[in-house]
TrEMBL record:
EC number: 4.2.2.2
Annotated keywords: Lyase, Signal
InterPro entries: Pectate_lyase
Molecular-function GO terms, alphabetical: pectate lyase activity
Coiled coil (UniProt feature): none
Origin organism lineage: Bacteria, Pseudomonadati, Verrucomicrobiota, Verrucomicrobiia, Verrucomicrobiales
N-terminal signal peptide: 1-18
UniProt source species: Luteolibacter luteus
Protein name: Pectate lyase
Length: 333
């Protein structure tokens, strides 16, 4: 166990919670039929790209899109598209509006088309060049997509998803889980966790932006493990993956440091009473946390990288707490 510690997760401008309509999912059926609800639905429908996806980092329920709809750029990043589809499913259940159904199915078809034969998903579809082509676990992108596919297969409102699409979604979910198991990083014969991105062909850990090097991710791996633990009657391969991942989170704890952010600047002090958290990136060879600025050079201490990246990224977080809590009551452990 690493002898460090932290106070709380440090969130950054790059990992800000995107403004999304997910909060509206808690509204009751009468709200979806109200003037306010119908307006929100119309706004969301107006922001759907021709591909079937939605743009990210904005609340697409607030205002209607104006301008050339052909220029809307959809993505799966930062919960875009999956949240809008869940909203439309709720709106359809409450209103039986055919426009909601058509938009949902177009979005679902887009997701199904985006999946690689190996089960992985790019950041958006079609992915173009560069790191968006990688199998994208970053910011829980693939986790959100697989949860949406499982929803479409098993939980979507009656009359929304036809049988062929339900079966396609179920098979796509299964391929995605198989891809996750195959991507789990093995070091010296032992399964560990996952990188935030994996090569779409070789499945090897891959980097993204200059400061996001290939590594073991203390953030994204948490969402992956929680997804795997949510599977009913998991296969022996999934069970093995979860056990190995939980063991990694146990040994990768960061203790002994208190991390605080004041006036936009991160301050780290030694404090034996600080709560346990985890680093965002762990070196693939040494297993130790590392930090990186836009120069792409690994550093052992957060204080050694430039202030812009030091204060503008989620380098530490409590991600493992939920993993270990759920694992403690997981029936297959």
């Amino acid at each position: 166990m690493l002898r460090l510690t932290l106070l709380a997760a440090i969130f950054s401008a790059d990992v800000l919670s995107a403004a999304l309509p997910s909060g509206l999912l808690k509204k009751d059926a009468p709200w979806f039929r109200s003037e306010e609800g119908l307006a929100a639905t119309a706004n969301i429908l107006s922001w759907q790209a021709a591909s079937g996806a939605w743009p990210k980092n904005q609340d697409n329920s607030m205002v209607a899109h104006e301008g050339d709809a052909a220029k809307i750029q959809g993505t799966f990043d930062n919960k875009a598209t999956t949240d809008e589809l869940r909203y439309l499913a709720r709106a359809f259940e409450a209103t039986h509006d055919d426009a909601c159904a058509k938009a949902f199915l177009r979005g679902l078809d887009h997701i199904l088309a985006a999946q690689y034969p190996n089960g992985g998903f790019p950041q958006f579809h079609p992915p173009g060049k560069g790191y968006p082509r990688h199998i994208t676990f970053n910011d829980d992108t693939m986790v959100h997509l697989l949860n949406l596919l499982r929803f479409a297969a098993d939980e979507a409102p009656r009359g929304l998803v036809d049988h062929p699409r339900r079966e396609a979604a179920r098979k796509a979910f299964e391929r995605g889980v198989d891809c996750i198991v195959k991507c789990q990083v093995v070091i010296e014969g032992r399964r560990t966790v996952w990188c935030a991105q994996h090569d779409e062909k070789t499945l090897a850990p891959a980097g993204a932006r200059a400061f996001e090097l290939a590594s073991l991710s203390g953030c994204e791996s948490a969402g992956i493990l929680r997804l795997l633990m949510s599977i009913k009657n998991p296969s022996p391969q999934v069970t093995e993956a979860v056990k190995a991942g939980a063991a990694w989170f146990e040994q990768a704890k960061v203790e002994g440091l208190r991390v605080e952010k004041t006036d936009g600047a991160i301050k780290i002090t030694e404090d034996a009473d600080a709560p346990v958290l985890w680093a965002r990136f762990y070196d693939l060879e040494t297993g130790r946390p590392f930090f990186c600025g836009r120069d792409g050079v690994k550093k052992d201490k957060l204080s050694e990288i430039d202030a812009e990246r030091r204060n503008g990224y989620a380098w530490y977080g409590a991600w493992g707490n939920a993993v270990l809590k759920e694992y403690a009551s997981w029936p297959q452990r």
